[in-house]
Amino acid sequence: MPALQLLMAAAIKELLPQFLSPEKVEASFAVMGVDSQLIEDGTYFILEEEGVMAGCGGWSRRATLFGHNHTAGRDARLLDPGCEAARIRAMYTAPGFVRRGVGRQILDLCEAAARKEGFRRTELGATAGGEPLYRACGYSEIERMEVPTPGGVTVPITRMGKAL
C-alpha cells in the first residue's frame, strides 16, 4: 500500500499539471488514491519493470465509479454483469513510464477480466490526464462532472464507457 500511495501521488503531482491548474491538481488528492476494496476483491493489477512499479489499475464489479477509501458516495453494491457496466478504477502510471504502453496494458487486463466474468460494458471516471488514453482505447464520453472537494475546489471527471 505505501508503494501504491507513492506512485499515485507522483502521478497526480507530476502528470496532472499539464491538464489542470495548481489548485485543481492539489484538490485531486481529495478524490483520487488507493481503494483497498479493489485489492481485497483481487481485481487490481500492478505492472513492474525490473522491480520498479511502472503503473497500476484495476476493475470492479462494485458500483463505485471512482475515488479512494474515503471518497464520499462510495457504493459497494455488486453490479449485475447482465445489465450493468464493470468499473475501471484507480489507473495510474509512474511519471517515468508514460507513453510506453503501461496504461493500455493495464486497461487490456482489466477489460479481459471483466469480460471473463460476464460483463459486456465498462465505465470509468477519467481524469483530464487519463481521458486521451481512454478515447484512444475506444471509450466514449457519457457525461462531464465537476466533483466537489472539502476545500471548495472542484475536480473535473469525465464518465466514459465502452462496449466489450
Structural description of this entry:
With 164 residues, the protein is α+β, with helices and mostly antiparallel strands. It has one domain: 3-Layer(aba) Sandwich (Aminopeptidase). The chain has helices at residues 2-15, 22-28, 36-41, 102-116, 131-136, and strands at 44-49, 52-60, 86-93, 121-126, 140-148, 154-163. A six-stranded mixed β-sheet has the order 1-2-3-4-6-5. The chain is globular and about 40 Å long. The mean pLDDT is 95.
CATH fold label: Aminopeptidase
Number of helices: 5
- Total individual domains: 1
* Rg over alpha carbons: 15 Å
Task: Describe the SSE topology.
Layout: H1 2-15, H2 22-28, H3 36-41, E1 44-49, E2 52-60, E3 86-93, H4 102-116, E4 121-126, H5 131-136, E5 140-148, E6 154-163
Parallel strand pairs: 3-4
Antiparallel strand pairs: 1-2, 2-3, 4-6, 5-6
Which characteristics define this entry?
5 helices, six-stranded mixed β-sheet, alpha+beta, 164 residues, Aminopeptidase
In short:
By secondary structure, this protein is α+β, with helices and mostly antiparallel strands. It has helices at residues 2-15, 22-28, 36-41, 102-116, 131-136; strands at residues 44-49, 52-60, 86-93, 121-126, 140-148, 154-163.
